[in-house]
Amino acid sequence: MMKHNFSAGPCILPKEVLAKAAEAVVDLNGTGLSLVEISHRSKDFVSIMEQARSLALELLGLEGQGYQALFLQGGASLEFLMVAYNLLDKKAGYLNTGTWSDKAIKEAKMFGEIVEVGSSKDENFNYIPKGYAVPDGLDYLHLTSNNTIFGTQIKKIPKTDAPLVCDMSSDIFSRQLDFSQFDLLYAGAQKNMGPAGTTLVVIKESILGKVSRQIPSMLDYKVHLGKDSMFNTPSVFAVYTSMLTMQWLKDMGGIAAVEEVNERKSQLLYSEIDLNPVFEGYAKKEDRSHMNATFNLTEAGLKETFDNLLQEAGINGLNGHRSVGGYRASMYNALSLESVGVLVDVMSEMERKG
Ligand SMILES: *Cc1c(COP(=O)(O)O)cnc(C)c1O
C-alpha cells in the first residue's frame, strides 16, 4: 500500500534520492566500495563534500558573496551553543517563537546577556510576535524561521542593523527569501534535506573573529572553515544523501519551483481545515507555516474514527507534538501534492460522518 509520510522529522525524502543513497551504501559510483567504508579523504568523498557545500550556496543564491557552507554534526541543537560561543561577546537578541527558540536562548545565556525582543509564549506560541523593538548594540539577532512544533512561520524577516542569525531547520530550501540578509543560518538535515546526522551551517565569514574567548576546536567555525568542513570525519552518509536531495531540488528548478508546489499543498490543506467544521487550525492564520500545519478536531470524541481513517489511507506521522496535541501535517519538499490530496479526502469523509 502506498504510504503518505507527514512525519515532522526525521521525515520524507525523495524516493529517487533514497534509491541512489541505498545503492551508494553498497557500491559508490561503480568503485566496488561502499560510501561508508571509504576514506573521507578519498577523491570520491572529497568531491561529494565539495558538491554539497557549493550546491547549498547555489540554491540559496549566496555564491561569491563571502559565504561558506559547512556540514557539521551535533544537530541544530549544537548550533544553539556554537552560535553563541562564536558570536556572542556581550549581548544578543532572540525572538522567542517556540520550543526551539527557547532552547537556543537557554544555551546562549551561558555566554552573555540575552534580550528576548519578543515572545509568543503567552499564547503557547500560536503566533509570531510583531512590532517589537530591536535594541541597538546587539552582537546578533536570532530568529527561528519556522516553528516546527507550533506550525508558525516568520513571513516578514525583521530589518535590523545587527547581524542576523536564523535557525532554518524546518523550512530550509522551501521558500524564496533574500538569504543575503542573514549572516549565519543553520539547519539540521533531517527536516528538509537529508537523514539525521549532519547540520548545514551557512556563514558570512566576515562576522567571525569578534569574540575574545577561546573556542574549543570542534566548536570553532573558523577551524571547520579552515579544513573545508573536514576537520574531523564528517557524517558521510548524511552529507551524501543531503547532496543528492539538493541535486534533486536543483534539477526540479530550485527553490522557486518547489515553493510553488509547497504553496499549493498548504493552500489545499488549510482551506480544508477552514471549511470543514470537524477541524480547527491551531496557529493564527497570518502566521501559518507552509511546512507544518497544526490542527485539532472540534470534537475530541471523533479521534478514534479519524485515526482509523488515516491508517486505512496509509497516512503516517500525523500526531501533533505533545506540547500542542491534536494533529500536525508536515509537508516538506519531498511530500507530493497527491499525498496532501489523500489527507484532505479523509478529512472530507470525516465531515460526512461527523
Ligand atoms: C528539529 C528542530 C531542531 C532540533 O534539531 P536537532 O537536529 O535534533 O538538534 C531545532 N530547530 C528547529 C526549528 C527544529 O525543527
Molecular structure report:
35% of the residues lie in helices and 17% in strands. It contains nine helices and 14 strands. It has helices spanning 15-26, 43-60, 75-87, 99-108, 221-226, 236-251, 254-275, 303-312, 337-353, and strands at residues 4-5, 67-72, 91-96, 113-119, 141-144, 146-147, 152-153, 164-167, 184-188, 199-204, 279-281, 292-297, 315-316, 327-330. Helix 1 runs antiparallel to helix 6, helix 2 (43-60) packs across helix 6 and helix 6 packs across helix 7. The longest helix is centred in the C-terminal third of the chain and has 22 residues, at 254-275. The model has no long low-confidence stretch (mean pLDDT 97). It binds pyridoxal-5'-phosphate. Pyridoxal-5'-phosphate is lined by residues 9, 75-77, 100, 144, 148, 167, 169-170, 188, 191.
Continuous helix count: 9
Strand percentage: 15-25%
Largest sheet: 7 strands, mixed
Give the low-confidence spans.
Answer: none
Q: Give the strand order, joined by hyphens, for the main sheet.
A: 2-10-9-8-5-3-4
Level of helix content? 25-40%
Principal-axes geometry comes out as globular
| Count of β-strands | 14
